[in-house]
Amino acid sequence: MTQYQKYNIGIQEHDYRTKQLKELEEKAAEDISLLKAITEGIKIRINEMRKETYGIFFCNRYCAIRSKHTVLKLCFRYEFKRDIVIGGENTRTGKIMAEKVTHYWDEKLKQKGSLTDKIKVKTTSYVVKAAVYHMLEICVSSKMQR
């Protein structure tokens, strides 16, 4: 076999392996995104279970006839009462500590802010993915027409 033939075989093998590697990377990226979605769902369910163990089932039991919005408001009241009114009461004076209230609201605002940031990042990533798929679709259709 000549050097040129060996070179061509090496190039073909390299191209084949890089193609395989790209396909494997794409499959791994899909698997990773699927696993992230699954873990996010699990985290949400864990938080729901935590809230249920803290007494939100109390709200659901007494508000079965009312709307979901009313149930959420009552659950929020229950959480506030549990965390601030009962937990933030000064044992000596019997008054609610202002630090507990401000800390509670700060934490709620941080949670809402992080949730909105997370949703913004997801929407931008979806927009980018949609644009990429659209460009690929245009590219493929133009190749098909040729």
The coarse silhouette is elongated
What structural class do helix, strand and pairing data support? Answer: mainly alpha
Quaternary structure of the protein: single chain
| Proportion in β-strands | under 5%
User: Largest sheet, if any?
Assistant: none
How many β-strand runs?
Answer: 0
Round the mean pLDDT to the nearest integer and report it.
76
Helix proportion: over 70%
**Over the alpha carbons, how many angstroms does the gyration radius reach?**
28 Å
- Tally of DSSP helical segments: 3
Q: List SSEs in N-to-C order.
A: HHH
Q: Report how far the terminal alpha carbons are from each other.
A: 38 Å
pLDDT < 50 runs, ≥5 residues:
none
Structural write-up:
The structure is a single chain. The chain is built from three helices and no strands. It has a domain of 49 residues. The chain is 87% helix and 0% strand. The mean pLDDT is 76. By secondary structure, the protein is an all-alpha fold.
